[in-house]
Amino acid sequence: MASTRRTLPEHRVESRADAQGAGGGRAAAQSVRSAMSFASNPVLRRLLLPLFARLNPGDITIKHHHTGAPVRLHSFRHKGYWWHGARREAETMEAFRRVLRPGDTVVEVGAHIGYIAMFFSHLVGPRGRVITFEPGENNLPYVRANVAPLGNVRLVEKAVGDRAATMKLNIENLTGQNNSLLDHFEGLTANQRAAAVATEVRAVDVEVITLDSYCAAENVRPALVKIDVEGFEHEVLLGAKEVLATHRPIVMVEVQRHAEAIFDLLRGLGYDLYRPDGTRVHRAADLEMNTFCLDPSRHAEALRSLRWAS
């Protein structure tokens, strides 16, 4: 189906409640519960998602739920953004808001469509900067469009790992979020089952660099490093050990593989690890996806802002 661009209204319970009073609030709350019920109902997903995959308006523009800026995305492949709205990874986004300050530098490894890079841009302001890495050709048209108006964001169209190389990036046509430098990635398999639609994967050559080499060459001193690379996170951290040891940034890493090695590496560098709700992680076995890593001596102010115990 040919791509078109349309604008969807922002999904906000408050606006309907304001317009319709208490009854409107109840109706809005019911719609949210219905949406959540659909998301967790495998029968409904199997029935409706294949239909939506064929009959959708293509590219649309929505309002960013945290900044109000326009976001270009595909109505089906990127439906998680408009479907969940501000509920999407709410604790993680709130933690970013609490730790970042105007003038900070953020390095993001894995931009997807640029949604979080836009949020970072808003938080660090014109005196700050955001460097975001994205190698996926299925994601790049969207991230380019979304960060183009932002003067403090630099898009680097390369992958990141533990060494300079040319590698095969496995690109999927489901969401673009599961692109991976791994041949067999469990996250994609799980999402394929949940999606209830056929998925294709193809491999393309991409350039891989390290954060250590990039930050040294470009004089980048990050206050925060975010890593979301679908199973390749340990390799990214191995190629960033000098950055972590020298600049001591806060790290947010999505852990999907090599949990024990990641735990040992970060603890060895003096980091304490936390879940987005502030729960301290004391064992590798307790690592669950999004993990914040802070140096208790360097990041005391951030820990106070987060209200997390060191």
What features would you describe in this structure?
With 310 residues, this protein is an alpha/beta fold. It folds into two domains: 72 residues, no CATH class; 169 residues, Vaccinia Virus protein VP39 (Rossmann fold, 3-Layer(aba) Sandwich). Helix content is 39%, strand content 21%. It is built from twelve helices and 13 strands. The strands form three sheets. Strands 5-4-3-9-10-13-11-12 form an eight-stranded mixed β-sheet, with helices on both faces. It has a three-stranded mixed β-sheet with strand order 6-8-7. A hairpin with a 5-residue loop joins strand 11 and strand 12.
Brief overview, please?
By secondary structure, the chain is α/β, with parallel strands linked by helices. It contains twelve helices and 13 strands.
Total number of helical segments?
12
Number of strands: 13
The ordered string of helix (H) and strand (E) elements is HHEEHHEHEHEEEHEHEHHEHEEEH
What is the arithmetic mean of pLDDT?
A: 87
What is the name of the CATH architecture of the largest domain?
Answer: 3-Layer(aba) Sandwich
What is Rg? 20 Å
**Structural class assignment:** alpha/beta
Q: Strand percentage, roughly?
A: 15-25%
Q: How many domains make up the 3D coordinates? A: 2
Write the topology of this structure:
Elements: H1 13-39, H2 42-54, E1 59-63, E2 70-74, H3 79-84, H4 90-99, E3 105-109, H5 115-124, E4 129-133, H6 140-147, E5 153-156, E6 159-160, E7 165-172, H7 186-195, E8 201-209, H8 211-218, E9 224-227, H9 233-238, H10 241-247, E10 250-255, H11 259-268, E11 272-274, E12 280-281, E13 289-294, H12 300-306
